Amino acid sequence: MRAVAIAKPAIYRSTVGKKAVMAVSGGVLVLFLIGHMVGNLKIFYGAEDFDHYAHWLRTMGEPAVPYRTLLTLLEVGLVVAVVAHMWSATSLALRARRARPVKYASRKKSHAQGYATHTMRYGGVIIALFIVWHLLDMTFLVVNPAGREATPYERVVQGFAPENWYVTLFYVVAVIMVGLHLAHGTWSAFNSLGLRTPRNNRTLRGVAFALAGVVTLGFLAVPFAVTFGLVS
Ligand code: HEM
To answer: How remote is the CA of residue 37 from the centroid of ligand 1, in Å?
Structure first.
């Protein structure tokens, strides 16, 4: 009995800490997604602009810092954010399970709650698998049909060519998962950060859904434009 009384506040604090890690790392990933989406939309300006942007990513900060320094720092930050996000999510989920050794009777757990948990958990796994594929496709050019010497524009255009419809389909599913993850994740972060009040409830929900909608449509625009011949 005594042990429980002492341990409870510590567990509580650390759960809040893990939620904060999740919210902050999620925030970093949202910023990356917005930047990446805006950068991708440059494809509508043509090959030269898009490849120039990809080149700029590698030469940012030159000549003050050597080639690729800032991009490498950004990549390290991204990896740290992804690991922190997955670690806090897993450890919060395990803790929730330990705290509830007997499964909820289905009527106790609302439909919406179960849906959100499933979307976040399995959606997160699909997104992680997608990122591995995406890096092999667009960054390391291991699976991209354009080959190793291709420019960034060629990778995108050949990657989403109509005959590679199954790759495009995988991207579309993954981007929709990212959108759902973002909608629920942003909403949860508002809650965890204590920003939600009965008065701003609807507004914050609207902000979370609008952000997710813009990011989803912005990312989908590129593969669809290539598949339907608007970009070639
Ligand atoms: C569906 C539309 C998308 C397109 C057309 C696209 C395109 C690209 C391209 C061309 C690169 C290589 C950039 C370069 O090396 O210059 C890249 C890198 C990357 N993309 Fe995407 N991407 C898309 C969606 C996403 C999504 C939804 C995510 C995350 C969930 C993502 C995460 C990344 C990451 C982590 C990198 C590596 C960044 C780096 O270290 O340089 N991408 N993407």
So the answer is: 8
Q: Which residue, judged by its Cα, is nearest atom 32 of ligand 1?
A: 131
| pLDDT tens-digit series, residues 134-143 | 999 999 999 9
Structure tokens of 193?
Answer: 């950060």
CB distance 179 to ligand 1 below 6 Å: no
Which pair of tokens denotes residue 168? Answer: 């495009």
Q: Does the C-beta of 123 come closer than 6 Å to ligand 1?
A: no
Nearest-atom index, ligand 1, CA of 174: 27
pTM: 0.89
Q: Judge if the beta carbon of residue 75 lies within 6 A of ligand 1.
A: yes
For residues 73-78, average pLDDT = 96
Which amino acid is residue 171, in one-letter code? Y
Contact 22, 88 (CB under 8 A): yes
Helices (H) then strands (E): counts for the chain: 7, 0
Token pair 């609302």: residue: 110
Pairwise CA distance, residues 15 & 111, whole Å: 24
47/50 Cα distance (integer angstroms) = 5
Read out DSSP for 7-19?
A: HHHHHHHHHHHHH
Q: Could you state, in order of their start, the residue ranges of all structural domains in the chain?
A: 10-100+112-227
CATH for 10-100+112-227 is 1.20.1300.10
